[in-house]
Inverse folding.
DNA sequence: AGCATACGTAAGTTACTACTTACGGTAAGT
DNA sequence: ACTTACCGTAAGTAGTAACTTACGTATGCT
C-alpha cells in the first residue's frame, strides 16, 4: 500500500484525484509521461486499494477509494500515538 | 519523504523504532539483510527527516523523529479531509 | 599501545521498475 | 458498417536502487 505511494508520479496522480474523479487522459495531460504509463500506475494504485474505477462512455473514471485512504491514515495515526508516547517517556526521564 | 517509506525493508526498520531507540546492530538482527544495508537505509530515513541518531559508546542509536512523523500524518490528514468532503458531495448528489 | 566492537562508506553487481512504442479491444458517433 | 475516441496490455529498454563484500574510522577496554 505504501509501496504504491512510494513513486512520485503515482503520488501526483493520487493528488490529482483529490479534487474529484478524473479520466486517464485527463490525468496524463498534466504529467510528463505517456498515457499508457498512467494506466500502469493506476493499476498499481487500484491493486493497493487506493483508487477505484468506473466506465463513462468510452472513458474510464478513476477516483480515490476512501477505505484505502483511511487505512493509510490509521497506519500513521497508530505510529504517531505510540511514537508520541515514547517521546513523552524520554522527556519525562530527562527532566526528572 | 514518502519515497523513504516506499521500501519494505525501510518500513520494517521504521516500525522497529516505534518501540524505542535501537542500535544499528539490533535493527540488523531482525532483518534478512546485512548490517551495512541497514546503515544505508537509515541514512535515507535520516535524510527524509524521519529518524535521528546519537552516539552511545561505540554504538549509534537511532530513534523516530516526531516532527517527520507528524508531517507524514498531516499529509494524509489533509488528504482524508478533502477526499471525505468530495465523497460526501457525491453521496449527496446520489441520494438527492 | 594494542585489540575488539560497532558502525559508515566505497565499489561493484543484480534485480527491479518506470517508461516507451506498438497493438488490440470497446463504446459512441455518422 | 466504418471511423473516431479512449483505454488496457504486451514487449522491450534504460535507469535506478537495494544489496553484498571489502575497507576505513571512532570508541572503549585491558
Amino acid at each position: 500500500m505504501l509501496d504504491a505511494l512510494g513513486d512520485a508520479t503515482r503520488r501526483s496522480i493520487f493528488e490529482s484525484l483529490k479534487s474529484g474523479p478524473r479520466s486517464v487522459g485527463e490525468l496524463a495531460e498534466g504529467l510528463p509521461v505517456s498515457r499508457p504509463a498512467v494506466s500502469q500506475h493506476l493499476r498499481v494504485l487500484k491493486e493497493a486499494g487506493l483508487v477505484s474505477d468506473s466506465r463513462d462512455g468510452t472513458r474510464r473514471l478513476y477516483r480515490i477509494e476512501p477505505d484505502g485512504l483511511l487505512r493509510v491514515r490509521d497506519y500513521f495515526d497508530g505510529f504517531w500515538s505510540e511514537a508520541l508516547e515514547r517521546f513523552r517517556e524520554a522527556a519525562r526521564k530527562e527532566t526528572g
Observations:
- Chain B touches chain A at residues 2-3, 5-8, 11, 18-20, 64, 66, 69-70, 72-73, 76-77, 79-80, 82-84, 86-87 (CB under 8 Å).
- The first strand of chain B starts at residue 22 and ends at 23.
- Strands of chain B lie at 22-23, 51-56, 59-64.
- Residues 23-25, 35-36, 39-40, 43, 57-60 of chain B lie near DNA strand C (CB under 10 Å from a C1').
